[in-house]
Each structure stands twice: as structure tokens, then as C-alpha cells.
Amino acid sequence: MEHNYDDDCIFCKIIKGEIPSYTVYEDDDVKAFLDISQGTPGHTLVIPKTHVKDIFAYDADLAATVFAKIPAIARAIKASDPAIKGMNILNNNGTVAYQSVFHSHIHLVPRYTDHDDFGMTFTDNSSKYSETDLTKIQDQIKAQF
What we know:
It holds the Pfam family HIT. Helix content is 25%, strand content 17%. By secondary structure, the chain is an alpha+beta fold. It is globular.
């Protein structure tokens, strides 16, 4: 796969070795390295080695290449520490979705307990949507394929 880079992108600089990283896995297409924030110990970022802004910019080949690596990297992280009980896998796309670096990246966040220093909550809005509302949303999405 041919790679393109953005000279102003911190992740592209990490890929090119201009900024050091704690790399845990690397091949011709993907780099996985520790997130320096370490939401929990072992928190790893997986990035394509070609600059792509977010999930909306992936083509089928890039998606297949990058996402095929996630299970093996996740298993390696889990196997590295017997205290890991689970893992959140997150991909934020756009500022409103908390994306802060605009080079697509997938967070692999090991979970040790339900009281570790990481949280995700969703509000149950099911009472706000009728069957008609859900069918309308379903049809709008299905029409895009």
C-alpha cells in the first residue's frame, strides 16, 4: 500500500520517526503505540501508516487492512497482563465525537475493574423513540447503500 503523509500531523511524524513513540506493533501498513495519556495501563493507539482523517475517509481496502489487525493487537495487550479483564475499543470521528488528532486512530483501552480510571456511559433514550421514529431512521440509513 502506498502511503501519504501530512507534514503537520503528529501521528505522521510518529510514523516517520520524527517523534518517538512506545511502539508495540508495526508492519508495512499499521503502527500501534502506547497512548501517552494511558487512560489505563496498556492504552494503545492503532493507526494506518497513510494519513486518513477519519473513518469517513477510509476506502474498503484500507479498512480491511487496518481493522484486520485490531484483534491480534488486542489479544497481545490482554495477554501482556493477567489483570486485564476486558477492553474498550473506540474510534472517535470529528470534533463533536471527541476526535482531537485528525489522523484516524483506534483506541484499545484495557479494563482492569469497573472502577478503573476510564468510563463510558450512554443515556437510555428508548422512551423518546416510537416504532415509527426508529423505522424512519432505519430507512434513512438503509437508503444510503
